[in-house]
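Lab notebook: predicted structure, single chain.

Context: the supervisor wants predicted structures on file for every construct in the current expression panel, including those that have not yet been purified. This is the next one on the list. No modifications to the sequence; it matches the entry in the shared construct table.
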Amino acid sequence: GILQVAVSALYGTVRVAQRPAGLYVTNGPLDSSSGSSQIEFRGTTAVVNAALQQLEFLSANNTPGTDTLLVNASDLGCCGAGSTNAGVVATLAIEVDAVNDAPQIMKPSQVQKVAEGVDMLVYRAAGLQIADVDIGSNLMHVTLSTTHGLLTLGSKSGLKFAAGSGVADKIMSFRASLTDANEIGRASCRE
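Prediction complete. Output recorded below exactly as produced.
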């Protein structure tokens, strides 16, 4: 007989990595690269089991914790006495571990130009900023350097320097909260 199976994820997505021959999709993009929160397919027992062996779960970004996979299987009433639609539902808890996402640096898209001997704003006002989705209240390590000129920070509040002082440095390295790292004010570079 033919089985119909629906698979859904509470937060993440599911997909069948390799679609076996004889599998008919009744709902959802079964094998799209990004997956879907719900897919549904039909086939013989052997074909459905082959599809379930290729089932992949992809957690949603930045959602650590427990996700639930719901599997609903039905024989569509094709077999047995009375031929009623017999089905079964099973749930599978999936524990999603957090990963350390790398910080991002947003910077101006154009080359910055300045006349020799003139301060050039190189930080926030010029479009240079740091983001990190999972840093929370932890400190981050920031290194600023220049191949020509010297760097000076407008504010050193909350910064813990490992190299340089924040005034007329070729290279400076400090630890700071994300907020403090983005509030260094009028950081400038002078040739």
